[in-house]
Design a protein that fits this description.
The chain is mostly beta strands and 299 residues long. The chain is built from two helices and 18 strands. The chain starts with a helix and ends with a strand.
Length: 299
């Protein structure tokens, strides 16, 4: 059969990164093949969707993610399988698939539906909850490891508009509140070599545009001011929804949550302190990864 020949020709080859390809080498010779492509609500290709197939006895027969083209291919034993596809911000898609001996089941295009629970929050003014919000960063160190740190003191406000795209965020961070777990390093970061907190005590971010990408994914554009230098910054943001929590420490607050990331170049903000090791390796890398986990409460 054609699939048996394909497996024999593929024997000995390795290193493929396409989902499901490696499974061709490990399934029985009578296995069949399942292929399909996943799209979002706008008909755009959806990479990274999680795919699972389970057999009649609920045993997992295949697992992986869609590739950069939203495609997935795998071989599975003959029989009936339950196919499940999930992705952040979308309702789980499930269906039954009957796979025959050495047969290719082409499911075509599967379009996922957004999760209705992630509708934009109610209009109003929301303030960052300092007990459930973190502003963290990661910096490369001497090309071998990474330094993790955070800012302990900050204030942030989200003004949610009637049309969510017209909303606005303002954040002020106390630069001196930086903490990496090593006092000597923290003192150096507060000095004029880095944040120069004596002359520039605050780091500020103000948004100017919310752009909906798909489902729970948004891009928040704005300007970051650091050491007196202002540059455009784009936050890749996952909206986690709005809820009213009851329980210890929450008091029935209406709150929204999100997770954002961005990568900054130090030289863009005149943080150009340089030190190298004997072989010319930089002590501190040129980029800093920023991560914000935010919960904000309606005032």
């Amino acid at each position: 059969m054609i699939f048996a020949k394909l497996r024999r020709r593929s024997a000995g080859k390795s290193g493929s990164s396409r989902p499901g390809v490696s499974s061709f080498l490990t399934k029985p010779l009578d296995s069949g093949v399942v292929t399909f492509q996943v799209q979002d609500e706008r008909g755009q290709l959806l990479p990274g969707a999680v795919v699972t197939l389970k057999g009649r006895l609920n045993q997992q027969t295949a697992h992986g993610v869609t590739d950069s083209y939203g495609s997935f291919a795998t071989s599975v034993p003959p029989g009936e399988h339950r196919l499940s596809i999930s992705a952040g911000g979308y309702r789980r898609y499930t269906t039954q698939v009957e796979v025959g001996v050495n047969r290719h089941v082409q499911l075509g295009t599967v379009q996922l539906t957004p999760d209705e629970s992630l509708e934009p929050p109610l209009p109003g003014r929301y303030r960052f909850d300092p007990y459930h919000t973190e502003i963290r960063f990661v910096a490369p160190h001497i090309g071998m490891s990474k330094i993790h740190g955070m800012f302990k003191e900050f204030d942030g406000v989200v003004q949610v508009a009637e049309r969510f795209e017209d909303s606005r965020i303002e954040v002020a961070i106390n630069a001196a509140s930086i903490e990496t777990g090593v006092k000597m390093r923290d003192d150096h970061l507060r000095s004029a070599d880095f944040f120069d907190v004596e002359n520039h005590p605050h780091i500020r971010f103000t948004s100017n545009r919310f752009t909906h990408l798909r489902a729970d994914r948004w891009s928040i554009s704005g300007h970051l001011t650091l050491r007196g230098t202002t540059r455009p910054v784009e936050l890749e943001t996952t909206y986690l929804g709005q809820r009213k929590w009851q329980g210890p420490g929450f008091d029935g607050d209406l709150r929204v949550a999100s997770h954002s990331t961005a990568t900054l170049r130090r030289e863009d903000f005149s943080v150009d302190w340089k030190a190298t090791l004997a072989k010319g390796i930089a002590v501190v890398g040129p980029t800093i990864d920023i991560e914000l986990g935010v919960q904000a409460v309606m005032e």
